[in-house]
Amino acid sequence: MMTHRGPIVTFGRSGGRGVAGGHHNGGVRDATAGYPVHRTGGGGIIAWVWIGAVGVLVVSVLWAHSSLSEIGGALVVASTVGPAYIWGLRPRLEENPEGLLVANPLREVFVPWSALTYARVNYVLELWTADGTEVSVFAVPRETSTQRFRRRGLGSGLTLTGPVPQIGEVSGGGIQLSAPEQIAFDLNERVEHAPKDQVAEPVTAGWSPVAIRVLTASLAVAVLGLLAATL
Questions:
Q1: Which helix (DSSP H) or strand (DSSP E) does residue 147 occupy?
Q2: Which site in 150, 191, 192, 207 is 20 to 30 Å from 223, CA atoms measured?
Q3: Is 172 exposed, middle or buried (0-12, 13-18, 19+ CB in 10 A)?
Q4: Within 10 A of 135 (CB to CB), how many other CB atoms are there?
Q5: Angstrom distance (rounded) from CA 148 to CA 22
Q6: Is residue 60 within 8 Å of residue 78, measured between CB atoms?
Q7: Tens of pLDDT along 71-124?
Q8: Is 119 left (phi over 0), alpha (psi -120 to 50) or beta?
Q9: Is the pTM of this model over 0.85?
Q10: What is the reported pLDDT for 144?
Q11: What is the C-alpha to C-alpha distance for residues 17 and 174, in angstroms, rounded to an integer?
């Protein structure tokens, strides 16, 4: 039996229906399959702004017929586009018919639905599996200090099958959950309705080939830029 560590921010059901309503804005729903893809919000915006600024810088340097050392400096700055993509744009939590794909900056983990036992929020969204694996989801927005303080004060001791607590701000008769709480609520609803006799499939994890290639290319561009800048 897996031991729960700390306050579990999972939610039960009331009257056969989840009280927390709707999906949070961080999930983009696939219109064909009906499965959402959750991405980081602020990090993606910052990454796009940075990539745009770097693009403008590189174009302006090339347009001005700059010296080799200036072009080298621009290449060094351009090498940061890769890390911006890896940490700002690549992370996602993708739901599909087979399970959950957790794409963190450098690693990817696939959690079959049969292996998922519960989800909780502990500053970040955590997925717990039947074999005791804990998977932290980088893509889901982090809790703010206010949300964390509220949850610790009101949400300790909550269990998957317990009654829905009066946690969060109540608006129009519904409970307003934070983005990670809403995802945890939805995932635990699915776990609760899953067949109890299903065999848990193994969780697979590994380094992301795309992330490794992007980092390698960024390093090569940075080295090339440094060589050009010193000539």
A1: helix 145-154
A2: 207
A3: exposed
A4: 21
A5: 21
A6: no
A7: 999 999 999 999 999 999 999 999 999 999 999 999 999 999 999 998 988 778
A8: beta
A9: no
A10: 58
A11: 12
- Token digits for 9? 């921010």
Answer yes or no: are the C-beta atoms of 62 and 75 closer than 8 Å. no
The two tokens of residue 169 are 């701000």
Is 10 within 8 Å of 184 (Cβ atoms)? yes
CA angle 6, 7, 12 (to 5 degrees): 140
d(CA 82, CA 183): 29
Grade residue 223 by pLDDT with cuts at 50, 70 and 90: very high
Burial class of residue 196 (count of CB atoms within 10 Å of its CB; 0-12, 13-18, 19+): exposed
Q: How far apart are CA 151 and CA 176, in angstroms?
A: 13
Neighbouring C-alpha atoms within 13 Å toward the C-beta of 60: 8
Distance between CA 163 and CA 131 in Å, rounded? 27
Block residue for tokens 């219109």: 31
Could you give the CA distance from residue 82 to residue 87 in angstroms, rounded to a whole number? 9
Cα–Cα separations (whole angstroms), residue 194 to 5, 76, 204: 23, 51, 21
Residue 1 structure tokens? 């039996």
Are the C-beta atoms of residues 124 and 136 closer than 8 Å to each other? yes
* pLDDT higher at 69 or 163: 69
Tokens found for residue 152: 């610790």
Contact residues for 227 (Cβ-Cβ < 8 A; gap 6+): 72
Strands, DSSP E only, in 40-144? 92-95, 99-103, 107-112, 116-122, 124-129, 134-137
Q: What is the mean pLDDT of the chain?
A: 76
